[in-house]
Design goal:
With about 90 residues, this protein is mainly α. It is built from one helix and no strands.
Length: about 90
Amino acid sequence: MSARIVPFPVIPRRSAPADRLNAALASLSAALAKQKAEVASWRRGLAELGGQLRATEAALLAHNDALGTLKQGVATLHDRALQLRRAMPDLH
């Protein structure tokens, strides 16, 4: 998602001043409505990104926990292997 700049409205200068002012006001109102829609879309995108980041964080924490469990299992097996090596020195 990327930001889109809403350009300042261009109004022809051939009409009466009151008509030009009314046209400028209508154009500015339309630009403001577009800008509000774009800001709302941007905010939704940020909220979605926040949700994805929270989900990624949860997945990484779960993975870290699994690695901690694996580390304990490997350490236990390593200790057991050392015990067996000490118990049977002629095998290595």
